[in-house]
Amino acid sequence: MARARGLRAIAITDHESTQGVRPAAAAARGTELGVVPGVEISTESALGEVHILGYFVEPESAGLEAKLREIREARVLRARRMVERLAALGMPLSWERVRELAAGESVGRPHIARALLEQGYVTSTEQAFALYIGSRGPAYVSRLKVTPAEAITLIRNARGVPVLAHPLQVTEIVPALAKAGIEGLEASYTGYSPEEVRYLEDIARRHGLIATGGSDFHGPDLVCGELGAATVPYDVVEELRRRRPA
Fold first, then answer.
1. Domain coordinates in residue numbering, the chain
2. Given this structure, which CATH class describes domain 69-133?
3. Which of 52, 18, 23 has the alpha carbon at shortest distance from 38?
4. 3-state secondary structure string, the chain?
5. Is the CATH number of domain 9-61+146-242 3.20.20.140?
6. CA-wise closest residue to 140 among 98, 185, 89, 206
7. Contact indicator for 47, 173 with CB cutoff of 8 Å
């Protein structure tokens, strides 16, 4: 799909997992498509939920994998509890189907939303979040607490480059994250207007950060952007590579 859409490189940044990196790299072997190994870590701050991306991480890093495994196990428990709450609300779901939709270790709310849609409890995955599993919904369960600074350290220790994902609502935290070692800011993102992109690019310049981009594509039929909907010049990939910790 990435090749068909004319992309020169893609990053695999699954939530709390690097398991998709190796098969993606294998699929791209022999083509002109570059695959950047990465990860996305969900964290909690005083401003609420903050997502930290890690580009060019070493997927086999023992410290990174151990922490990601802990977070993934907590994600599974969290998802099961949300399914239980939905059942108590009169919307039973098959846990096996939720895991099937996840198609791997990184089970989360988008898969529960898809299951709700399949059962006809909602008319869209967006509605599932708005009514039931969003942060103010009756079936919401909080995640294992990881701070942005902890995620930044984890990524840097795995020789990765930490970047603040979809930052428009949490720009106040940028100065603190810059001091903590973040290297980039996701300025180009699905749904951001040209004015918002320029605003974020200006923040990145002021703090010496790379203005990155990402579509946040989670796969067909899930709450996500379209693959390639938000792109950046290839120079961004090279700059991220240059900023890898030694």
1. 9-61+146-242, 69-133
2. mainly alpha
3. 18
4. CCCCCCCCEEEECCECCCCCHHHHHHHHCCCCCEEEEEEEEEEEECCEEEEEEEECCCCCCHHHHHHHHHHHHHHHHHHHHHHHHHHHCCCCCCHHHHHHHHCCCCCCHHHHHHHHHHCCCCCCHHHHHHHHHCCCCCCCCCCCCCCHHHHHHHHHHCCCEEEECCCHHHHHHHHHHHHHCCCEEEEEECCCCHHHHHHHHHHHHHCCCEEEEECCCCCCCCCCCCCCCCCCCCHHHHHHHHCCCC
5. yes
6. 89
7. yes
Give me the residues paired with residue 51 across strands.
Answer: 42
45-60 confidence digits (pLDDT tens): 988 889 999 999 998 8
Sheet arrangement for strand 161-164: 9-12, 34-45, 48-55, 161-164, 184-189, 210-214
| Tokens 């203005």, located at residue | 211
Q: pLDDT tens, 93-148?
A: 999 999 999 886 678 899 999 999 999 999 999 999 999 999 899 999 988 889 99
Q: 86: which 2 tokens?
A: 């939905």
Separation CA 190–CA 193 (nearest Å): 9
Q: Output the six-digit token pair for 188.
A: 């180009």
CA atoms within 13 Å, Cβ hemisphere of 188: 13
Contact 109, 115 (CB under 8 A): no
